[in-house]
Design brief:
Layout lengths: L2 E5 L4 E2 H13 L3 E5 L8 E8 L7 E9 L14 E4 L4 H5 L3 H12 L4 E4 L3 H7 L6 E2 L6 H6 L3 E2 L10 E3 L2 E4 L5 H11 L6
Helix pairs in contact: 3-4
Length: 192
């Protein structure tokens, strides 16, 4: 199966959607980008988060990112894995029961799931982190622990990735090389 599902929404983090889309496409996957309330061919607006020495990340308007598939009638059976980018979108995506149901289906089937930054907010709302170790942007730590998950500390460069069973998580886009390598490994690729 050479299809990956990516769930996005308006103000998804630009790099956390676009870069994984490009990497997975390069490896021959069809990446179905979906967003509740949007149809194939429509776009979501992205936000660029950067680390510039402030107490938290800064946010700037990014690009328009194309939705490539319809959100209706999704089934985990049709996909090899799931990608949940961060940014602002997870704040409202986690309120959508259909999003939570599809996420739960990937976990029930033990299919690889890659979640980064605030994308872990969707996992906390879906109730799939109990007893599971993961990392995320540090501001998500209280939600992870409240959901029964075990937060793994972010290193100084925020370029670490953490694998726990079928879940690979990362704190933010500086972790792309490790995060995507770990996800591709879970998908069955051997990468040197």
């Amino acid at each position: 199966m050479k299809k990956i599902l990516m769930i996005v929404g308006d103000f998804v983090e630009d790099y956390e959607a676009m870069v994984p889309f490009q990497i997975l496409s390069m490896f021959g996957y069809q990446v179905d980008v979906v967003s509740p309330g949007k149809k194939s061919g429509e776009k979501v607006k992205t936000a660029v988060h950067d680390f510039e020495g402030d107490q938290t990340y800064t946010e700037k308007r990014g690009h328009n990112f194309a939705v490539t598939a319809n959100f209706s009638r999704l089934s985990a059976d049709n996909y090899a894995g799931l990608v949940l980018p961060g940014g602002r979108a997870p704040e409202f995506l986690r309120l959508n029961e259909e999003v939570l149901d599809i996420v739960r289906a990937f976990f029930q089937a033990q299919k690889p799931v890659a979640a980064i930054c605030h994308g872990l907010q969707i996992l906390t709302a879906a109730g799939v982190l109990k007893g599971r170790s993961c990392t995320a942007y540090p501001a998500v730590k209280p939600e992870i622990t409240a959901a029964g998950g075990i937060f793994v500390a972010v290193n100084e460069k925020a370029d670490n990735s953490y694998v726990c069973g079928n879940l690979v998580s990362a704190p933010a886009w500086p972790a792309h090389p490790r995060w995507m390598k770990d996800f591709l490994t879970l998908l069955g690729h051997k990468i040197g």
